[in-house]
């Protein structure tokens, strides 16, 4: 019961900071929204008549295909490792997440090289058994190939989420199902799967966002989608308005997926009720069945990680002497600092936003803060276009207003600032979520106690809140770090003078038909990507026990 | 303290970007936008810096992206030099008014007139030939004669080349338009398409591998790719390249189609003098020999010696058409490709 009627003022310095951050993060979307009303560019007619339908078909086809295969691979393996005991199960729990460390484009180069005429498989068969093939073993440079590559790199999203969901499900419900006469198979389809549905669809939605973001794979395979269309109309045809139109259509896809995802979830929560959660009892199937389950997981692991990983190691062993030099270390240094700066900036901004939320009782502040995490759903090419346009306009304005003498260089566009800004927009959610859960875990009371004892909000933040959520802050920086390292389309458009990252170098070398050489930079990206995956897995296991 | 943290972040960011811009004012620099991704280029730039003290800043991206960037940046562009492969692209930059005509006695004496844009908007630095790579097992060189002959009946299902989206093929067709007219060019394109072993796809190297693996018997590719493959770290790549022979087509009439990698000074170059110095250096005998030795391209400077690999391939008669024509005919070539259905 409240004894005193409290009056809150919504405005304070924290809401001020937060609104500013939100405005900046929303820049690219606002740009696109306002630019849609410009009259179409010269090439819009050409693109809409000849190419648009193809972009649409390919994008939809890839989305459906990847959704299907990530579901198949992710859910089946998750069900096996969470419900059965079989040799290697403990290892597959984390081995099957490793493919996430492969960016799609690197997986694409690797598989094409692996299956090509001069690749190890064909060479081996040719040199030892005189077996020859006409062309590549399997031709991947087409739509099904794109679906294959994206599915094997993205299924761990579905695997991770559905595994967590299967483990959290109340065992009593499953037991009830058995008692009522259902077998494991029926239980899976009638009980476990429907209960895990919201989580699984969430995982597939995440994978779909990555599909819409992909540029490297579809570009390499010559499959035209909206992303390649944005690059083509912006760079080949020199028509930024058409690029904006395409970006807007792409955003319709994004919002449709987001809407469908939240619609299917509704208000339903299928988590087990408190107290009914029992530790998982895994069934021990018959030996042949155990063998089958191990084989299924093993084959998926080999195809999605180990084989391409060894191909990369093989290429590195052939080319490292040529590639690894001072410039290569400079490349690593630059990529790492860029990723680290972005990680730190994002975590600082997340803390400001979430601390505002923590201090404010207003629901609308909570709702608009969510805007800041929207960037993860926006494809990199769209963000890049949405940032380039206002930045260039700003530069032009500065030049025309303040400067008379000609100076080389631009103010915002083409600088590290533009690039980091774009990364922040794109990866805000990646750093925001761990910070948010950190704040939630420690609760508000410690903060209130400090305030009651007379500390000001800033002092409380630094003395009480931040030290308590140190681990969340570190994992936020780390997760952003890895995502920045992998990022390609946005970096390609916005990177400044003299600036190559590991990702753009890999892409450049691969498009210049030097795939073996490109694998050195690729290896660094993959190895760095493995670290947080292992940490992430530890976190899940700790949570579930 | 939070305020201080935010402030210091902004200061750090501002600092980073001031360094990025500020360095331009203190020392002599030349800013290069390049589409040429040769590893050797960086060594050449280093040699240039050593010789002149002028620092070379490089942005590398695809030619389309660079041209777009130049357009967007307009008079504010920091770029001084645009380097790209294929005359068609240099021509595109020129027609978009992104380059300026420069005159330099050194450039004029280093580079023969046919490799220069007449007004001096751009200059060829190396050239390459688009040749026929044939299977040494299944084709004898006597069967080959010209690009046109590949449309004959006996080559059905045996010809390989990449997609028409690639500018090398666009420029080849542009040269055919110049010599045979639009109708003749369309006839050639559809005749060649009818003889293809597979749907056009993949890179030039992929075409060579397809000949080696028996998917087709003759491929239209650029010379230097074969040089690169012959010297690849992967033994299998070398073996594949050894399975093809090189044939220079059209020796009895107009000569083999060639193209250039080249450079031009940008219209608003803030360091124009340094830009010209860089071009002069890149066309000098030493730089040309250095590049030709590493990259298997032909030096434009007649004083520069051919590399061992180039000598092995022998001399040939090149199509003498002015390279600007390739750019002028480019859009028509693209339309013809679309019309005949060359993917």
The CATH homologous superfamily of the largest domain in chain A is called: MetI-like
Q: What is the CATH H-level superfamily of the largest domain in chain B?
A: Periplasmic binding protein-like II
DSSP summary: helix tally of chain B: 14
- Measured between the Cα atoms of the first and last residue of chain B, the distance is 61 Å
Overall strand count of chain A: 0
On the 0 to 100 scale, the average pLDDT of chain B is 86
Would you state the CATH class of the largest domain in chain A?
Mainly Alpha
Tell me, briefly, the overall form of chain A: globular
The chain-level structural class of chain B is: alpha/beta
Count of DSSP-assigned helices of chain A:
23
- N-to-C terminal Cα separation of chain A, in Å? 38 Å
Instruction: Please tell me how large the radius of gyration of chain A is.
Output: 25 Å
Count of structural domains of chain A:
2
Q: How many domains comprise the coordinates of chain B?
A: 2
Percentage of β-strand residues of chain A: under 5%
Helix vs. strand class of chain A: mainly alpha
For the report, how would you describe the main beta sheet of chain A? Answer: none
CATH architecture of the largest domain in chain B: 3-Layer(aba) Sandwich
List low-confidence stretches of chain B: 10-25
């Amino acid at each position: 019961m409240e004894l005193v009627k409290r009056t809150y003022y919504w405005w304070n310095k924290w809401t001020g900071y937060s609104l500013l951050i939100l405005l900046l993060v929303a820049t690219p979307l606002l740009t696109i929204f306002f630019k849609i009303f410009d009259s179409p560019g010269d090439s819009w007619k050409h693109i809409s008549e000849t190419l648009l339908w193809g972009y649409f078909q390919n994008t939809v086809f890839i989305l459906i295909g990847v959704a299907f295969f990530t579901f198949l691979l992710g859910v089946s393996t998750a069900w096996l490792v969470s419900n059965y005991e079989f040799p290697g199960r403990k290892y597959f729990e984390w081995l099957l997440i490793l493919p996430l460390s492969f960016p799609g484009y690197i997986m694409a180069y690797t598989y094409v090289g692996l299956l090509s005429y001069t690749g190890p498989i064909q060479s081996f068969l040719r040199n030892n058994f005189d077996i020859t093939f006409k062309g590549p073993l399997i031709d991947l440079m087409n739509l099904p190939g794109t679906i294959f590559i994206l599915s094997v790199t993205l299924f761990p999203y579905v695997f991770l989420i559905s595994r967590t969901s299967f483990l959290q499900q109340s065992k009593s419900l499953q037991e009830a199902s058995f008692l009522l006469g259902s077998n494991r198979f029926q239980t899976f389809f009638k009980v476990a799967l429907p209960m895990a549905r919201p989580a699984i669809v969430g995982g597939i939605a995440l994978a779909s966002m990555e599909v819409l973001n992909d540029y490297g794979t579809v570009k390499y395979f010559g499959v035209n989608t909206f992303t390649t269309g944005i690059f083509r109309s912006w760079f080949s045809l020199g028509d930024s308005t058409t690029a904006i139109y395409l970006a807007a259509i792409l955003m319709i896809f994004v919002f449709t997926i987001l809407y469908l995802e939240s619609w299917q979830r509704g208000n339903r929560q299928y988590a087990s009720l408190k107290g009914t959660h029992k530790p998982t009892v895994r069934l021990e199937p018959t030996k042949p069945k155990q063998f089958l389950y191990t084989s299924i997981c093993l084959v998926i692991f080999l195809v999605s990680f180990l084989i391409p990983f060894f191909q990369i190691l093989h290429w590195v062993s052939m080319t490292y002497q040529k590639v690894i030099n001072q410039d290569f270390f400079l490349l690593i240094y630059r990529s790492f600092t860029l990723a680290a700066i972005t990680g730190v900036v994002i975590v600082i901004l997340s803390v400001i936003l979430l601390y505002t939320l923590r201090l404010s009782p207003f629901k609308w502040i909570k709702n608009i803060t969510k805007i800041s995490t929207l960037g993860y759903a926006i494809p990199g090419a769209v963000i890049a276009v949405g940032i380039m346009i206002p930045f260039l306009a700003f530069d032009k304005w500065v030049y025309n207003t303040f400067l008379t003498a000609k100076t080389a260089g631009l103010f915002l566009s083409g600088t590290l600032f533009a690039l980091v800004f774009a990364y922040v927009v794109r990866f805000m959610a990646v750093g925001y979520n761990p910070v948010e859960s950190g704040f939630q875990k420690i609760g508000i009371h410690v903060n209130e106690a400090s305030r009651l004892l007379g500390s000001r909000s800033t002092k409380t933040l630094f003395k009480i809140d931040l030290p308590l959520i140190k681990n969340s802050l570190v994992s936020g920086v780390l997760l952003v770090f890895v995502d920045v390292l992998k990022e390609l389309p946005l970096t390609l458009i916005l990177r400044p003078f003299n600036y190559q990252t590991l990702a753009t170098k890999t892409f450049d070398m691969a498009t210049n038909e030097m795939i073996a050489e490109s694998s050195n930079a690729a290896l660094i990206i993959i190895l760095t990507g493995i670290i947080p995956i292992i940490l992430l897995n530890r976190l899940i296991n700790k949570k579930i026990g | 303290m939070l305020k201080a943290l935010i402030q210091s972040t902004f200061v750090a960011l501002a600092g980073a970007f001031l360094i990025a811009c500020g360095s331009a004012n203190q020392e002599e620099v030349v800013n290069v936008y390049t589409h040429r991704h040769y590893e050797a280029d960086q060594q050449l730039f280093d040699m240039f810096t050593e010789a002149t003290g002028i620092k070379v800043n490089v942005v590398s991206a695809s030619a389309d992206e660079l041209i777009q960037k130049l357009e967007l940046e307009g008079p504010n562009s920091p770029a001084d030099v645009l380097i790209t492969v294929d005359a068609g692209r240099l021509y595109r930059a020129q027609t978009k008014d992104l380059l300026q005509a420069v005159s330099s006695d050194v450039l004029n004496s280093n580079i023969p007139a046919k490799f220069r844009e007449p007004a001096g908007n751009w200059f060829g630095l190396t050239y390459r030939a688009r040749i026929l790579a044939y299977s040494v097992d299944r084709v004898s060189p006597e069967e080959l004669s010209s690009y046109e002959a590949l449309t004959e009946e006996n080559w059905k299902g045996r010809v390989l080349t990449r997609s028409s989206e690639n500018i090398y093929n666009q420029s080849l067709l542009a040269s055919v338009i110049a010599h045979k007219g639009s109708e003749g060019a369309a006839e050639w394109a559809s005749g060649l398409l009818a003889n293809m072993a597979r749907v056009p796809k993949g890179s030039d190297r992929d075409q060579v591998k397809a000949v080696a693996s028996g998917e087709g018997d003759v491929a239209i590719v650029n010379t230097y790719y074969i040089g690169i493959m012959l010297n690849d770290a992967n033994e299998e790549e070398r073996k594949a390249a050894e399975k093809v022979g090189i044939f220079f087509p059209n020796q009895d009439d107009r000569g083999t189609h060639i193209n250039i990698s080249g450079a031009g000074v940008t219209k608003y170059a803030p360091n124009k003098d340094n830009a010209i110095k860089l071009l002069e250096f890149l066309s000098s005998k030493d730089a040309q020999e250095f590049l030709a030795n590493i990259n298997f391209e032909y030096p434009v400077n007649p004083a520069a010696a051919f590399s061992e690999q180039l000598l092995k391939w022998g001399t040939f008669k090149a199509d003498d058409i002015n390279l600007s024509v390739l750019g002028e005919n480019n859009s028509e070539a693209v339309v013809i490709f679309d019309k005949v259905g060359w993917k």
